Amino acid sequence: MATPYHSLSTIATSIVIISLLVISHAQDNAPHHGDVISLNMIHRDTPSSPLYNSSLTKWQRVSNALRRSRDRINRFISSEDESPDHLIYSQGEYLVNISIGTPPRTFIGIVDTGSDLIWTQCMPCRECFEQNPPLFDPASSSTYRELSCMSNECHLLSGAASCSSNSSSCDYQYSYGDGSHTTGNLSLDTVTLDSTSIPNTIFGCGHHNGGVFSGIESGIVGLGRGAVSFISQIGAYLVGGKYFSYCLVPNPTMSFLSNNSNPISSSKMYFGRLNTSSGPEVVTTPLLSTGDSATQTFYYLELQGISVGDNITLDADAKAVKGNMIIDSGTTLTYLPELLYDRFKSAIREALKDRYLEVKQDPTGSGLCFLTKYDILPGPNVTLHFNGADVKLKSTNTFIRMDDETVCLAFSPSSGVGIYGNWAQINYLVGYDLDNKTVSFQPTDCTTS
Ligand SMILES: *[C@@H]1O[C@H](CO)[C@@H](O)[C@H](O)[C@H]1NC(C)=O
Ligand SMILES: *[C@@H]1O[C@H](CO)[C@@H](O)[C@H](O)[C@H]1NC(C)=O
Ligand SMILES: *[C@@H]1O[C@H](CO)[C@@H](O)[C@H](O)[C@H]1NC(C)=O
Ligand SMILES: *[C@@H]1O[C@H](CO)[C@@H](O)[C@H](O)[C@H]1NC(C)=O
Ligand SMILES: *[C@@H]1O[C@H](CO)[C@@H](O)[C@H](O)[C@H]1NC(C)=O
Ligand SMILES: *[C@@H]1O[C@H](CO)[C@@H](O)[C@H](O)[C@H]1NC(C)=O
Ligand SMILES: *[C@@H]1O[C@H](CO)[C@@H](O)[C@H](O)[C@H]1NC(C)=O
Ligand SMILES: *[C@@H]1O[C@H](CO)[C@@H](O)[C@H](O)[C@H]1NC(C)=O
Ligand SMILES: CC(=O)N[C@H]1CO[C@H](CO)[C@@H](O)[C@@H]1O
């Protein structure tokens, strides 16, 4: 809505009226007790993905995913050292198709557990990347409202918001480490997930946007831990508070499964606490936080060690306060602190040296690849020992096929913080409990759940 000028009292009155309308509307659709919102999570490399490039071969896709992985870990490492507004976005691997506005308009967002703000490209567009769904036009949404500079919401963005005067709009500016950026008005509108409408969601209505976008997505859905993150905002509407989880299926175009045409069910994201989040096989580890605002977005875990068979290697440097590892859905490989990685690699090499020929070629940067047309099955039992939670990986989590002949360890060394990447999370139900500050893992066949 273009609001050239309103007196403050008019704005305040409108806010009250709009809020009342929105809340009463929302209650019709609000989740009932026991309902959890379920969304498909589209991997960029599945044929149903709007980002799918059919002219790439399977192995090009793998190699691209690993390149994105390297870009992203580098952002995580630099964002730890640099300023709070140095955000890490570097593509990410999964998309969700949600809606924004009244009536709802399609919003295809990249799921980013490494940033907070949810934003979409908006009309009038002064600088935009190409996108497939029509641009969101605030003027066509009856529930859209621009936030003022004096609003509490505007203050939540601290350094990323600026105001020319108290009565002006709340202008935000986000620059990601990879050169991607969005600038626009911080606003409120209804976001619809499946059939659940969540009113007054703070989002960035971006009028100047650019960077590494692929032409289909409309923006980013930030699912970090910070105050403006989507999950922090919508917790009040969810069953069991600020809780989301996902279950990632093996990707048929990028995995051990050699059959591209075999349809496989989609990965799922759930908002709200699932009943299964405390079953017998569930393991749970605390989420750690730095006092440091620069990194309070990230989901830090403490990885105490890693076992290959019965041999355990401990990470002597594991930092109990802050955590030595970030769990992330947008990075493919898992990155271990260097010393831990070196010992892990030696143990894997030791366990497989009699069965497979090691090849020096190192397309992953993983440093350990084997020549084999067959999958490494059974592989050695690999267990990640998080504080209080032993996560037992399957061979399909531990190794990644690079081409018809080569299988590599799906792990790489990191010179800074580690990343628990999405490949190692496939076929686990991973639950993020922001209220209880825990992350839980439950082995699950995600293709049938
Ligand atoms: C989930 O738990 C809630 C509350 O304990 C209960 O009402 C609901 O029936 C449960 N749902 C399932 C599918 O078990
Ligand atoms: C798809 O991949 C081909 C081959 O690498 C490339 O030339 C083309 O630009 C890609 N298309 C898109 C939309 O990324
Ligand atoms: C997103 O959802 C809308 C509404 O359900 C649908 O019309 C559209 O085709 C979907 N887009 C993609 C790329 O899945
Ligand atoms: C905005 O308002 C605050 C207090 O309400 C005041 O301290 C500040 O000086 C005002 N700033 C401008 C630019 O008017
Ligand atoms: C691939 O999947 C198709 C359809 O499900 C099936 O007919 C075909 O036999 C499969 N090929 C292989 C090699 O598994
Ligand atoms: C465990 O360590 C011992 C001693 O270094 C070694 O002999 C054995 O092969 C290792 N087992 C595995 C599964 O790596
Ligand atoms: C892996 O662990 C399972 C039980 O968890 C055991 O039955 C199996 O023998 C182990 N495999 C190897 C190679 O040690
Ligand atoms: C989460 O915390 C609440 C209260 O702090 C507690 O009642 C509940 O049992 C906890 N849930 C889990 C799954 O730990
Ligand atoms: C940064 C930005 O695009 N701010 C815009 C917010 O909205 C007002 C009008 O609604 C524009 O004038 C600003 O340019």
TrEMBL record:
<keyword id="KW-0325">Glycoprotein</keyword>
<keyword id="KW-0645">Protease</keyword>
<dbReference type="InterPro" id="IPR033121">
    <property type="entry name" value="PEPTIDASE_A1"/>
</dbReference>
<dbReference type="Pfam" id="PF14541">
    <property type="entry name" value="TAXi_C"/>
</dbReference>
<feature type="signal peptide">
    <location>
        <begin position="1"/>
        <end position="26"/>
    </location>
</feature>
<protein>
    <submittedName>
        <fullName>Putative nepenthesin</fullName>
        <ecNumber>3.4.23.12</ecNumber>
    </submittedName>
</protein>
<dbReference type="Pfam" id="PF14543">
    <property type="entry name" value="TAXi_N"/>
</dbReference>
<dbReference type="InterPro" id="IPR001969">
    <property type="entry name" value="Aspartic_peptidase_AS"/>
</dbReference>
<keyword id="KW-0064">Aspartyl protease</keyword>
<keyword id="KW-0732">Signal</keyword>
<comment type="similarity">
    <text>Belongs to the peptidase A1 family.</text>
</comment>
<feature type="active site">
    <location>
        <position position="112"/>
    </location>
</feature>
<dbReference type="InterPro" id="IPR034161">
    <property type="entry name" value="Pepsin-like_plant"/>
</dbReference>
<keyword id="KW-0378">Hydrolase</keyword>
<dbReference type="GO" id="GO:0005576">
    <property type="term" value="C:extracellular region"/>
</dbReference>
<dbReference type="GO" id="GO:0004190">
    <property type="term" value="F:aspartic-type endopeptidase activity"/>
</dbReference>
<dbReference type="InterPro" id="IPR032799">
    <property type="entry name" value="TAXi_C"/>
</dbReference>
<dbReference type="InterPro" id="IPR051708">
    <property type="entry name" value="Plant_Aspart_Prot_A1"/>
</dbReference>
<dbReference type="InterPro" id="IPR001461">
    <property type="entry name" value="Aspartic_peptidase_A1"/>
</dbReference>
<dbReference type="InterPro" id="IPR032861">
    <property type="entry name" value="TAXi_N"/>
</dbReference>
<keyword id="KW-0964">Secreted</keyword>
<feature type="active site">
    <location>
        <position position="328"/>
    </location>
</feature>
<dbReference type="InterPro" id="IPR021109">
    <property type="entry name" value="Peptidase_aspartic_dom_sf"/>
</dbReference>
<dbReference type="GO" id="GO:0006508">
    <property type="term" value="P:proteolysis"/>
</dbReference>
<feature type="domain" description="Peptidase A1">
    <location>
        <begin position="94"/>
        <end position="442"/>
    </location>
</feature>
